[in-house]
Amino acid sequence: CGLFERGEHSLRHRLEHSGDEVGGQILDGLFKEFTGMGFLSLLLFTAIQSGMVDQCADWLGMEHGHENPVSEAFEMAHMMIFLLLVMMLIQATCILLISRRVARTWQGFEETRAFGPPQKSLESLFVSSGHLTRKPNRNARREIDLVVNEPFTYGSAWLERFR
Fold first, then answer.
1. CA 135 – CA 90 distance, rounded (Å)
2. pLDDT tens-digit series, residues 1-42
3. What is the pTM of this model?
4. 3-state DSSP call for residue 132?
5. Residue 81 class from Cβ within 10 Å (0-12 exposed, 13-18 middle, 19+ buried)?
6. Alpha helices in 19-121 (DSSP H)
7. How far apart are CA 96 and CA 81, in angstroms?
8. What burial class does residue 21 get, using C-beta atoms within 10 Å of its C-beta: 0-12 exposed, 13-18 middle, 19+ buried?
9. Do 126 and 114 form a contact (C-beta atoms < 8 A)?
10. What is the DSSP code (8-state) at residue 71?
11. How far apart are the C-alpha atoms of 70 and 72, rounded to whole Å?
């Protein structure tokens, strides 16, 4: 339990330090679910260990030999809750990583200029890829003309668009 709490504290600290509000919201939602699932799991465990499940089976008139089918069902539900928590943790981690990656990508787009000499401007990216050439022209507004060498396409197949 201490390792889990230290991990949560460390993750919360990193998210707060990086200013990742979405990550904090995902973490809050995940731990709300953990709390609810943990409480259900505790109730099931208590019901099984206290013998209350066996008494309910007797009360319902269920005959059982060595193993109580109601108790078996409760234990199965207990394991399923645990596996559900593991899956939720994996999904939340994936969502957090993907959302951070998308945020970084869009941040880069927001910082990109359309024209100009900076390396990250669209103009410079097209020049470096060979799609455009800068030709000096004293009569032009910026004293250069942009000449199209090769038309730019997004690709004909969806996989080509991710290169």
1. 53
2. 677 788 878 888 888 888 878 888 888 888 888 788 788 888
3. 0.53
4. strand
5. middle
6. 21-49, 52-59, 69-111
7. 22
8. exposed
9. no
10. H
11. 5
